[in-house]
Amino acid sequence: MKTNLNDLHAFIAVVQNGNFTKAASALGSTQSAVSQSISNLEQNLELKLFNRTTRSVTLTEAGEKLFEYVGHQLDDINLGLERLSLMKNKPHGRVRITADDFSIKYYIYNKIKKVVKEYPEITIELTSDNRQVDIAQEGYDAGVRLGLSIEKDMIAVPISHPIQMCLVASPKYMQGKTEIRNIQDLNQHYCLGIKLLTSNSLLPWSFTQGRKQVNYKPQSNLIFTGVDRVLDAVVDGLGVAYLPLDIVKDFLDTGRLLSFLNESVSTYPPLYLFYTSRRFNSPAFQIVCNALKEN
């Protein structure tokens, strides 16, 4: 049995207001429309709900039972809808985002601090993960990844500039080592690797030679799953690393790291915030999204 919710609203309004005229006024409807809703409900249930005379409207036994069953439930539904509508004026709720450590530390965290301060009823859940995550299947509202690794059916907005990479080593490590003048020279060095959990392989080091892009596969003797630990290792003189310029620039400026093959090292596309649909995004999600898009 399928009952129109509007018919039930009309029924509750008649009970609460005592007659069809007042019920119509309360609903912002007409007396004939309310009468039609009651008729529809009675036909659907195959039960008479009201005893009607020219002077009064009273509930039948079936009508009393129906009001007992659904009266408070409809009030709860209306209250729930009203509370949901308030979310537009006072955003709250949880926003779940998956990203890797690098993205969170250098491009996301500073942008969401303002949101946390201004909207205390919004909860932002950041999960650090360098896997290629199916955000819909794993229950995330959005993810952050390099543009080249995002599926085409996703909505994607850039939240960073293009990511310039840099090949670096410490002066301490380079003492007595072969100078790095070309890609082949890397074969003579200890290389610090980053493991991609999705493919269970090492991140290739991308270089440009003329018009060609060359991916060097480092034979690493020390492997991590995030850039921060690689940065620690290269500063400590444990090998050569391929890292974003943003995180090594201060070390280059102070001479704690040296850079190599600057003309050949690749630049990756920006980081993108990606999600499945613009439809029905919560106000809380939209606030977080707008914050991440800011320069």
UniProtKB/TrEMBL annotation:
Domain HTH lysR-type span(s) in chain numbering: 3-60
InterPro entries assigned: LysR-type_TF_proteobact-type, LysR_HTH_N, LysR_subst-bd, WH-like_DNA-bd_sf, WH_DNA-bd_sf
Keywords: DNA-binding, Transcription, Transcription regulation
SUPFAM superfamilies for this protein: Periplasmic binding protein-like II, Winged helix' DNA-binding domain
A GO BP annotation: DNA-templated transcription
Keyword Cell cycle: no
PROSITE patterns xrefs: HTH_LYSR
GO molecular function, one term: DNA-binding transcription factor activity
Organism superkingdom: Bacteria
Family, per entry: Belongs to the LysR transcriptional regulatory family.
PANTHER family for the chain: HTH-TYPE TRANSCRIPTIONAL REGULATOR, HTH-TYPE TRANSCRIPTIONAL REGULATOR PGRR
Name assigned to this protein: HTH-type transcriptional regulator PgrR
Organism this protein belongs to: Acinetobacter bouvetii
Species lineage: Bacteria, Pseudomonadati, Pseudomonadota, Gammaproteobacteria, Moraxellales
